[in-house]
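User: Please predict the structure of the protein below. I'd like the answer in structure-token form so I can feed it into my own downstream comparison script.

Assistant: Understood. Taking the following sequence of 321 residues as input:
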Amino acid sequence: MEKKGIDISHHQGNIDFDKLKGNIDFAMVRTSYGAFYEDRNYKQNIAGLERIGVPYGLYHFSYATSVDDAKKEAEGFINLIKNYKPTYPVVIDIESSDRTADLRGDTLVNIANTFCKMVQDSGYYVMIYANLYFFNNKLNSSSLNNYDKWLAQWSSKPTYNKPFGMWQYSDKGSIPGINGNVDLDVAYKDYPTIIKEKGLNNYDVSKQEEPSDENKPSSEINYVVKKNDTLSGIASKYGTTYQKLASYNNISNPNKIYTGQIIKIPGNASISPSTYVVKKGDTLSGIANKYGTTWQNLYKKNKAVIGSNPNKIYAGQVLSI
């Protein structure tokens, strides 16, 4: 799965979001920098993205030179992002600046760990942004392996040899609605599903609003998109229209769906669901009872996903029924 995005700040000026719509799948918005200054356009950028239905993440440009600085920056960032529900990661941007260029690698690792732990402990999906040199030479510590990475490497293909979830591949992009250059990105994970299913980034899965009884579908199927699927083809399979599926799943461009993407099918379906996305609090036996089978059968089908312990399943896993 690949989704195309951009990252924006006040440097892009006033964006025409109506022209931007349909040209990107997501955007990363700079909210702040240092300890503690707000990007002067972040509020209007978030509002514009929300209005046109483009998912977004948020990032903070760090000037921290010590752990104490990192704590102050994290506190300010957490206080700012609590007002939003980004469905892409929240990020510390660690780059070479006039303040940080000469910092030792171990100092930068401590700064990154401090910031990320504070933000993660506050309930957010946190990520580290840096260029290839920094990741290879200054942030090359196993203590950072648990945090997702956003790699900046302006080239035809990335060469970083550790896992990363996003790649900024150019700083010379041209997108309708933006005057001048803009950074271009690729995301390799279905962040909206991961974040919502795990109840992160201010999404509380135990308190998510349920539809009223009159509007609540009597059943809902999670369909995992396969290679060569189209939204109209999926709609036809379940006796509905692609317009309804696009609206129900907040899909801004019905012609762009991706292998591995989860499409929710509302209403009574004439075909039994083929997959189930694990939710917080689920057990294998509970899912089995729901679909009239046994946990042993489910485990046999999904051992590659679940692993060696059938008592341990996690929100966001996709199980075959």
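That's the full token string. Residues 110 and 202 are 26 Å apart (CA to CA).
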